[in-house]
Amino acid sequence: MPRTGPAREVAVVAFAQSDHLRRTDELSEVEMVMPVLHQVLDRTGLKAKEIGFTCSGSSDYLAGRAFSFTMTLDGVGAWPPISESHVEMDGAWALYEAWVKIQTGEADTALVYAYGKSSPGPVRDVLTRQLDPYYLAPLWPDSVALAALQAQALIDAGETDERALAAIGARRRAAAGDNPHAQLSGDAVPQGDYQVAPLRTGDCPPIGDGAAAVILAAGDTARRLCARPAWITGIDHRIEAHGLGLRDLTDSPSTRLAAERAGVFERPVDTAELHAPFSSQEVVLRKALRLGPDVVVNPSGGALAANPIMAAGLIRIGEAAARIHRGASDRAVAHATSGPCLQQNLVAVLEGERA
Q1: 349 neighbors 300 (Cβ within 8 angstroms)
Q2: Partner of 175 at 20 to 30 A CA spacing, among 136, 160, 165, 168?
């Protein structure tokens, strides 16, 4: 059965992100987000009153207070009144909500932003709150320990080894040398000691703070705002079983299904921005998305170079779109994940204007 395309043409027409830093103690969330919002609006020439819908992604657990996202709305502006929503998820899911809003015809433009400050607290412990509250969360297995289980499963299955994982981390941080916003970059980043075997420091994402924003627009509005819009020709997200014991950690059927529904396999892609916070997860995602050696993977450095929680997935979409904007890519796949061991996955296909 052929895939049904979206009813309206929707494109990413602008993308902006902060410099990703280990600590931003001197900045509040509002102060971190505001410059990014100003940058992304300036790149389109739009004013706040011309945005049809605003959606954000963040986590109250990181902020340590309820409804923390309402504070960052000060960065959007109190006047004129706006149509606004929020997801307690990575900003990639906020983008999905905004895309749906435009599909319904209720808006022609949307501002999507996301942010996360991981530096104030022990983020490995905070992320345990995503786990099953009855059986798994009371054991307090942290995010690195769970990723190490996945990495060991891949090694036991013969799909990778520690040397290959180290090479992935080295490639990503070397690629980030061309990314002025990356937190870690260059060939000199050491692999380091074990965090949880078989994962070493170089296999794990840096802890840091950052924010990102994109603007979506429909049809001719997108063409007016951007010389080469990055059209979202397909987007889908899927979720797997909450219990880790019910899943094959060496595979990601939810990513594969989302990719199929988004149309990834209909034609070759030239670029893939994968939200793989751990080197072992890139192995799983490459297999699920059927990426060959000719596909440029994470030219931005990916989450191994900068991993602002709740914004890293949106950044993957933004980075893929930016390559289309400047003509470096014609058809890209962007991926975002949430939850332990690639539990939830979103896949989007972005394409440049066809001749």
Answers
A1: no
A2: 160
